[in-house]
Design a protein that fits this description.
Blueprint (H helix, E strand, L loop, with lengths): L1 H11 L1 H6 L4 H28 L4 H18 L6 E3 L2 H11 L8 H23 L11 H18 L1 H5 L9 H10 L6 H20 L5 H15 L28 H33 L5 H17 L6 E3 H9 L6 H21 L4 H13 L4 H10 L1 H16 L2 H20 L3 E4 L1 E2 L6 E2 L10 E7 L7 H14 L5 E5 L8 H16 L3 E5 L3 H9 L2 H5 L4 E2 L1 H11 L3 H7 L35 E2 L1 H8 L6 E4 L3 H6 L6 E2 L2 H6 L10 E4 L4 H12 L5 E4 L2 H7 L13
Parallel strand pairs: 6-7, 7-8, 8-9, 10-14, 11-12, 11-13, 13-14
Antiparallel strand pairs: 1-2, 3-6, 4-5
């Protein structure tokens, strides 16, 4: 909040930045774009105000004030702020339960709604809460927009047929009552409405960049005037005031009205921000402009506050006017400001002519505009991409048609949040294997896994809502693979981990340790590693259990896994390191397996330097290297005899009982097996080199290297 207050002066002085360095060339481009957009804005303002159940002049006042203020205080150079389909329909939906359309109370409530929604948007912007729009997903926005388009089209049935329906009737009631009143259809009004729709559609096919709405309104209205259809009962807009936007006399301190409008104002504010932000981002991809969502919130907030104070109603960003501004060559936000000035100047000479504009003509224009809001291709694309998102979009659409709009929006947001929580609370936990080139890890459930090492991806955050699911999945993997004593967790998809996640990881580590193994980690993200460090988890599991991914399997293969399993028991060559490993399978009964939860007995191991001292003594022990010949030749203890584990297990009588025996292998695993075999046959003086040849090398002791063919 302090940072927001520090930026407040620059935020308020935004118009100075907009006009700074303004050149004649920029003025010319913005002026042309402003007039072009203004030609579209004028008829839309009239039509959208009627959609909201408000006098047409309120649409004009909103168009003038909001477009100027939004352009000066917004971030986008092309986002056009003013009356829109969605904002108008929301306004009607929110105020209809409180007042009758056309009454002073209804008009005052519309102005108050604009001020409240604007204040909320302004507060969001000043508090740097631009991220709030992310809580309304694309699936919700698409479903809501499509539902709003259908509602708008249904609301045009009455003016096109010139039948009287209750304002705000539900979709079902609208169709039922229209069908019941079909015999009272006013044919001239119907012809004008249909002609408008057909003409606009035809013009858009010819040239979409033309102000098709304005051209169609002029042509059809001229035909109606020439045929004297007003005298035949066609309803028109009526007289319009020829004045500047007047300051509204609003009940600014009516707490009862403010309380009644509060929920609706929040819905109007959020949906308007989502709409404006989405449009601004879409336009920015073409203009390459960098946007400030918080500044845009401020611009939208001030535009609505000023519109409410000057006899307008809630406004938002318009996609077609914003796109037209970009196509017309606007270079700064002044292009949109000029569109508001154009409407202001136009209402003085045009007001007497606009008064005779037929209402069914405007209704036809609204109907075809609303049809473009139903983006069935986007709905189909969402459904194909993700059925859950598709369902959310369709349910939001249905809710928009069946319940008050503000509740439809809230239900859509809640469903999106629920779907998000459901997805994040059940992240995928899957065993992976290297691909054919040993370059990438892939989920390959049809291939056998390493019997010693599980490599597992956790594809989601480890927060309190997800830990139970992850723990269940890990336990299932352990149950399916009881021989796997080691686990390598790939953590690159874990963006966040809380203390519940840490406790779950400790439980997993404990379970693998109970098996005589351990857990190792790769690609742990810095925020996750930080909580591991400060919570004591790193110390608990050991710093050496965090590995570099490029060398993790090599390290585990050569220093951790049991080579006896790899050579004598395993037929799987899961990793690159396994490919050149000799395989000498033994019958299962020939391999005495050392219990995984029992350490070697005290006194049964010997440290490297102590063994070095003993082999140099007058009565050295018999050192037997149980590795494979290839390993033995690459380096062994001087004087050690080669007796591979395979041969020792199948013929232990090769080892005499007259001298103490020290067993040696790479890391100690095969020595443990050999010791178990000898002890089971009555050998009493058997010890194991602690840590194997890896420990011998680490102690910088002498090794013998041999050359020659394999035995």
């Amino acid at each position: 909040m302090l940072a927001a207050l520090q930026k407040f002066p620059a935020t308020i002085a935004r118009p100075v930045e907009v006009v700074r360095g303004y050149s004649l060339e920029t003025l010319r481009a913005d002026l042309v774009a402003g007039i072009t957009v203004g030609l579209v804005l004028l008829p839309q303002a009239l039509a959208f105000s009627l959609l909201a159940g408000l006098p047409p002049e309120m649409g004009l006042y909103s168009a003038i004030v909001a477009s100027i203020v939004g352009a000066l205080w917004g971030s986008s150079s092309h986002l056009h702020t003013g009356p829109t389909n969605t904002a108008s329909l929301l306004t009607l939906s929110v105020i209809l339960p409180l007042a009758t359309p056309g009454t002073p109370e209804f008009i005052a409530a519309a102005g108050m709604l604009a001020i409240l929604a604007g204040a909320l948007r302004l507060a969001f912007g000043l508090a740097r809460l631009g991220l709030l729009v992310n809580f309304v997903s694309d699936s919700v926005a698409v479903g809501f927009t499509a539902g709003a388009g259908i509602l708008i089209m249904s609301n045009q049935i009455a003016p096109i047929l010139r039948i009287d329906l209750p304002m705000g009737a539900s979709l079902v009631d609208t169709f039922v009552l229209s069908a019941a009143s079909i015999e009272r259809t006013h044919l001239p009004s119907l012809i004008l409405g249909v002609a408008t729709i057909v003409l606009i559609a035809a013009l858009q096919r010819v040239q979409r960049r033309l102000p098709t709405l304005l051209i169609a309104l002029i042509i059809v209205s001229l035909v109606a005037w020439m045929l004297r259809l007003e005298e035949a009962g066609v309803r028109t807009l009526g007289a319009l005031p020829q004045s500047l936007p007047p300051f509204a006399n609003l009940p600014l301190f009516d707490l009862n009205l403010i309380g009644a409008l509060a929920n609706g104002a929040l819905a109007v504010a959020i949906i308007g921000l989502v709409e404006a932000s989405a449009i601004a981002r879409a336009i920015a991809t073409h203009s390459q402009q960098r946007l400030d969502s918080n500044q845009e919130f401020i611009g939208q907030g001030l535009a609505n506050i000023c519109a409410g104070l000057f006899s307008g109603y809630p406004c938002s960003g318009s996609f077609n006017r914003s796109a037209l501004s970009l196509q017309a060559g606007a270079r700064t936000g002044m292009g949109n400001a000029f569109s508001g000035i154009f409407v202001l100047l136009a209402i003085f000479p045009l007001a007497p002519l606009v008064a005779h504009l037929p209402r069914p003509v405007l209704a036809g224009a609204l109907a075809i505009t609303a049809w473009s809001m139903v983006d069935y291709r986007a709905i189909a694309r969402i459904w194909r991409a993700d059925r859950t998102d598709g369902a959310i979009s369709l349910i939001t659409l249905a809710a928009t048609l069946l319940v008050p709009l503000q509740f439809a929006i809230i239900s859509g947001v809640l469903m999106s949040l629920g779907a998000y929580l459901w997805r994040t609370s059940a992240p995928r936990v899957q065993s992976v294997l290297p691909d054919a080139d040993f370059r990438h890890w892939e989920y390959q459930p049809h291939l056998p896994m390493c019997p010693q090492l599980a490599v597992v991806d956790v594809l989601g955050d480890l927060y309190f809502g997800a830990v139970n699911h992850v723990e269940e999945q890990m336990n299932a993997l352990m149950t399916q693979n009881p021989s796997q004593r080691f686990l390598l967790l790939r953590m690159h998809s874990v963006q966040r981990c809380d203390i519940s996640g840490i406790k779950m990881l400790q439980m997993i580590v404990r379970q693998y340790r109970d098996r005589g193994g351990g857990v190792y980690f790769v690609r742990v993200r810095p925020p996750v590693r930080q909580i591991m460090d400060v919570s004591g988890f790193t110390q608990y599991v050991g710093e050496d259990h965090f590995l570099d991914e490029d060398h993790a399997i090599d390290y585990l293969f050569h220093r951790v896994l049991d080579p006896a399993v790899c050579i004598y028991e395993c037929e799987v060559k899961a990793f690159r390191e396994c490919q050149n490993l000799p395989k000498r399978p033994l019958p299962a009964e020939a391999i005495p397996l050392l219990p995984t939860n029992v350490a070697p007995a005290p006194g049964s191991t010997i440290e490297p330097r102590e063994l070095w001292r003993q082999i140099r003594s007058a009565s050295p022990p018999r050192v037997i290297d149980v590795r494979e010949p290839r390993e033995y030749r690459q380096g062994h203890i001087p004087g050690a005899e080669l007796l591979p584990l395979y041969e020792l297990l199948t013929n232990p009588d090769q080892v005499s009982r007259d001298r103490p025996v020290v067993l040696v292998c790479r890391s100690g695993h095969r020595s443990e097996r050999a010791a178990a075999a000898l002890l089971s046959r009555g050998f009493g003086r058997v010890t194991i080199l602690s840590g194997g040849m890896l420990a011998w090398e680490a102690s910088d002791l002498l090794m013998a290297v041999e050359f020659g063919g394999e035995r």
